[in-house]
Design a protein that fits this description.
Organism: Parvibaculum lavamentivorans (strain DS-1 / DSM 13023 / NCIMB 13966)
Number of helices: 19
Number of domains: 5
Protein name: Replication restart protein PriA
CATH topology of the largest domain: Rossmann fold
Pfam family, one: PriA_3primeBD
Distance between the termini: 45 Å
Enzyme class: isomerase
Helix content: 25-40%
Bound molecules: adenosine-5'-diphosphate, zinc ion
Strand order of the largest sheet: 10-11-9-12-15-8-16
CATH architecture of the largest domain: 3-Layer(aba) Sandwich
CATH superfamily of the largest domain: P-loop containing nucleotide triphosphate hydrolases
Strand content: 15-25%
Family: Belongs to the helicase family. PriA subfamily.
Length: 730
């Protein structure tokens, strides 16, 4: 595949523009010294002020600065140049998100030491020169090395069962000759035909359609819309195989949380080896290896979290976005981009298809399908004998739990029944810790984070109160911090730890696993608990959203959602969609094998749209209603939205800047500026936050509008203005 990388001819430029991966809006010109040749995309070292920095050759010099005043490139690094399509992608993302191009470039080089030459190690190989004196020990070494493979002194000595000295003697005699070997192993090549599975007729039809898109080598966005357990992964694996057969690279994006060993094992079963992995838990040496192999075209499949989108693939032929609706694909820190949307852009720049896979498509994607911009492929039956679980709501007004408890007697009965049948039950509550709120019974004081507008969450195992937004924590106080009364603090509401306490009283014999990010640090801990569940070493799983995604637990038959109304409380316009997606995913964990599954939603408002849609399974109707509600108020995807957050440790200054911005907001057709109002987290990490929402018609160029607005705003250093195009919550 490496031969297909277009290295481009050196254009003989005397000056070039170089983009530096810092928060700089554009590339700067540099002189190409005589005798040096640079190609577009080359990684170079250039001076900037007193520093020498890494940069990427973006194009020919702009001539903005006189040639004589330019500084010279110091060095061209020995690495495959950044492909043209990657550079166009950086520019596109920068333009769309209104981020400095250099900040986006930084996303493409997130591997420490990626551009340093690989370290080599010395190994030894047998040559024809016989040693002057042959001993039995030396003979054993010669026999060991006679297979032609190069090995280190240590390896040879160990395999031959001799001392290092014997091997060194042969090196000195010239019988063993040194060779330099790379310290890093190459990646195995996934085999498109390693194992075929028999697809059902419906699966086969879907796979053929996706494969045809891959073979057309043209841009297309295709929704793979299949109910949980319908075999979406098996189906898109066929498209992956098709891309591999054409010698293309493939990227599979998963929400970070779904990147489990279960997925990697499945990949290995299908393709005969593990893919390259890219996410925050990958150690930096391995990141280097992956980055380098991607750039060289010597790795063909990368499975990664959102940041993998920025790897410099020279020959990408397919992107799969699994769980495309997942909120984790959008983040507001740094460059605020939605990985699903940017994957579509990357595919269109590279002229290849992107597959968006989901059982609960986002409203944006559903509307894109309906309006004909995206194609769609459906899978509406579970694979094999499995049936979709039966979902019902438990009306908590009619079947309330006992005082101080959180599980309705109806749900308790169902769990007991599952356990008696030797099956597993799962209780889902998207709340970490023991209790979300600590309240003083005497004065009513609620313990809040000193740096955020959030209550502190009690973690009883750790005996502390913690903020889930900034990481602040403190021991649980003996007395109320406000009125000083002792022993009057009470824990309000449940978190998973509290549910575990209740379960322990109800089912003292049951083996319980609490699955939340607090008890599971790192991939090994995840693997261990999921393996234990699969192997039926656990009877009751109590978990946060970690358990909602992608897992396949064949013995799980009863799922109880402890508080189905939870996500609807904060009332933003996406709350219904988000809650539906999450609970549908959770429900999808039940009954994935022969034993039928049942799902119980504990709700105080079972008549709510979301509950009714979940119980009836009428997803499309629900989406149509949600879409209509958005259309009425021209909200995304029927209109455009930009979030502008003004934040500062100095609250008064933040308000002052916001007022000033409000005065200067340009008038434009089809654009209205709402706010400033306190942002959803009005205080975060000690910074006061105010927010504008810019609402615009679908055809308005919101980027130009924002640029015009911000162009001559003087923002004091202590204030940060962050712009979020297409904010996830509104
Ligand atoms: P989804 O991603 O749609 O929830 P999966 O791809 O995880 O569904 O498939 C559900 C289960 O069914 C998995 O264990 C998968 O291996 C199995 N499965 C799906 N299709 C087939 C098939 N054609 N042959 C064998 N097993 C299959
Ligand atoms: Zn906090």
């Amino acid at each position: 595949m490496a031969s297909e990388i277009s290295t481009g001819t050196a254009p003989g430029w005397t000056s070039v523009s170089v983009l530096i991966p810092l928060a700089l809006p554009k590339p700067y010109d540099y002189k190409v010294p005589a005798g040096m040749t640079v190609r577009p995309g080359d990684y170079v070292i250039v001076p900037l002020g007193p520093q020498e920095l890494l940069g990427v050759v973006w194009g020919e010099g702009t001539g903005e600065v006189g040639h004589n005043r330019l500084k010279s490139i110091i060095e061209v690094l020995d690495a495959p140049p950044m492909p043209e399509v990657s550079r166009r992608f950086v520019d596109w993302v920068a333009g769309y998100t209104l981020s400095p191009a250099g900040s986006v470039l930084r996303l493409t080089i997130r591997a420490p030491g990626a551009l340093e030459p690989q370290r080599m190690r010395t190994a030894y190989r047998l040559c024809d020169r016989r040693p002057p004196r042959m001993t039995p020990a030396r003979l054993r070494v010669v026999e060991t090395a006679s297979d032609g493979f190069a090995r280190s002194v240590r390896e040879l000595a160990e395999e031959a069962g001799v001392s290092d000295g014997v091997v060194r003697g042969l090196v000195d005699a010239g019988t063993l000759q040194p060779v330099d070997l790379p310290t890093e192993l190459p990646f195995d090549a996934p085999q498109p035909n390693a194992s075929g599975i028999d697809l059902s007729p419906q699966q086969a039809e879907a796979a053929a359609l996706l494969t045809a898109h891959v073979e057309a080598e043209r841009f297309a966005a295709v929704l793979l819309d299949g109910i949980t357990g319908s075999g979406k992964t098996e189906v898109y694996f066929e498209a992956v195989a098709a891309a591999l057969r054409r010698g293309k690279q493939v990227l599979i994006l998963l929400p970070e949380i779904a990147l489990t060993s279960q997925f990697l094992e499945r990949f290995e079963r299908r393709f005969g080896c593990r893919p390259a992995e890219w996410h925050s838990d990958v150690p930096s040496r391995e990141r280097r290896r992956v980055w380098r192999a991607v750039a060289e075209g010597s790795v063909s499949v990368v499975v990664g979290a959102r940041s993998a989108l920025f790897l410099p693939f020279p020959d990408l032929g397919l992107i799969v976005v699994d769980e495309e609706h997942d909120a984790a694909f959008k983040q507001e820190d740094g460059v605020a981009y939605h990985a699903r949307d940017m994957a579509v852009v990357r595919a269109s720049l590279g002229q290849f298809p992107v597959i968006l896979s989901s059982a609960t498509p986002s409203l944006e994607t559903a509307v894109n399908v309906e309006q004909g911009r995206y194609a769609s492929v459906r899978l509406d039956a579970r694979f094999g004998a499995a049936e979709l679980p039966d979902v019902s709501a438990i009306d908590m007004r009619l079947h309330p739990p006992e005082r101080g408890a959180w599980l309705s007697p109806l749900l308790v009965t169902e769990i007991a029944r599952a356990l008696e049948a030797g099956e597993q039950a799962m209780l889902f509550l998207n709340r970490r810790g023991y209790a979300p709120l600590t309240l003083c019974r005497t004065c009513g004081h609620r313990i809040e984070c000193p740096q955020c507008s959030a209550w502190l969450v009690e973690h009883r195992f750790r005996r502390e109160l913690a903020c889930h937004h900034c990481g602040y924590s403190a021991p649980v106080p003996k007395a109320c911090p406000s009125c000083g009364a002792e022993d009057t603090l009470v824990a309000c509401g449940p978190g998973v730890e509290r549910i575990a306490e209740e379960v322990a009283t109800l089912f003292p014999e049951a083996r319980v696993a609490v699955v939340s990010s607090d008890n599971l640090r790192g991939p090994a801990a995840h693997e261990a608990v999921f393996a234990a569940i699969e192997n039926r070493e656990v009877d009751i799983v109590i978990g946060t959203q970690i358990v909602a995604k992608g897992h396949h637990f064949p013995w799980l038959t009863v799922v109880g959602v402890v508080d189905a109304d939870l996500g609807l409380e904060n009332g933003d316009l996406r709350a219904g969609e988000r809650t539906f997606q999450l609970l549908q995913q959770v429900a999808g964990r039940a009954g994935r094998a022969e034993r039928p599954g049942r799902v119980f939603l504990q709700s105080w408002m079972p008549e709510h749209n979301v509950m009714r849609a979940l119980v009836s399974g009428r997803r499309d109707e629900f989406l149509v209603r949600e879409a209509a509600a958005r259309e009425r108020v021209s909200l995304p995807p029927y209109g455009r939205l930009v979030g502008v957050v003004i934040s500062s440790p100095d609250a008064e200054l933040a308000r002052k800047v916001a007022r000033e911005m409000s005065r200067r907001a340009p008038q434009a057709d089809n654009v209205s500026v709402l706010g400033p109002a306190p942002a959803p987290m009005a205080l975060l990490r000690g910074r006061t936050r105010l927010r504008f929402l810019v609402k615009a018609g679908r055809n308005v160029n919101v980027q130009s509008y924002m640029q015009a607005w911000l162009a001559d705003m003087k923002i004091p250093n202590a204030v940060r203005v962050s712009v979020d195009i297409d904010p996830y919550s509104f």
